[in-house]
Amino acid sequence: MFKKIIFCLSTTTCLIAQSENDSLSIDPSYLEDQIYVGLTYNVFSNTPDSFVQDGFAYGVAVGFIKDIPFNEQRNIGIGIGLGYTFNTYIQNLGGTDDMLVQNFTTKAYSDTYTINTNSFELPIEFRWRTSTLEKYKFWRIYTGINISYVFNSNAIGLSGDELVDIQVLTLERWQYAYTLAAGYGTWNFYMNYSFVPFFDKNSVFESEKLNMNTFRLGVMFYLL
């Protein structure tokens, strides 16, 4: 009798486990939670006439995005993430400070200044994709905004063969940007355009407000 009970319990347990495995294999309620890694080429827009960008300015971003689907097919939703980004910008504007205003002037063509920034970022995306539970390579279009906070920045100038630190560098700490990621599989085109000036509101160039924006173009990798 005892052996029959054990046999029945074992059989029932196996059937339940198999049933759960089968249901998981066809369960459509999956999420596209992802680790992302981005590589970009960085430039400025809305620049002064005498502005020059020379050299390869780049950016690296890494973070995690939580997926929130909206429909039963799980192919439309939003993503909310948290990440870190490091960016460089190379240009020929040097700054001086009179306590109230950050004045910028253009330097000789051979003089360049590299600005480095470290930021925390919060991407918020509207997401469309053609993925399924079994389909790991699919088309995607993710677009939205990226809110970032610059917690650290520095600048080094190269005047001829001499390295000099730029003491005056006041940036807008909070940056807001339009973003677009589109592609197939792991490789995706990525664009990030800031609609907030890079330098703070007291930055001027030739007595006019300096309204330079950042534009980042590159690739984004999404890893499950």
Question: Which terms would index this structure?
Answer:
single chain; mainly beta; 8-stranded antiparallel barrel; 4-stranded mixed β-sheet; about 55% strand; elongated; disordered N terminus
State the end-to-end distance: 50 Å
- Helical fraction: 10-25%
Strand content: over 45%
What is the C-alpha radius of gyration, as a whole number of Å? 25 Å
Strand order of the largest sheet: 1-2-3-6-7-9-10-13
The global form is elongated
Biggest β-sheet, characterized? 8 strands, antiparallel, barrel
Q: Which structural class matches the secondary elements?
A: mainly beta
Number of strands: 13
The chain-level mean pLDDT equals 78
Helix-strand pattern, N to C? HEEEEEEEEEEEEE
Number of helices: 1
Low-confidence stretches: 1-26
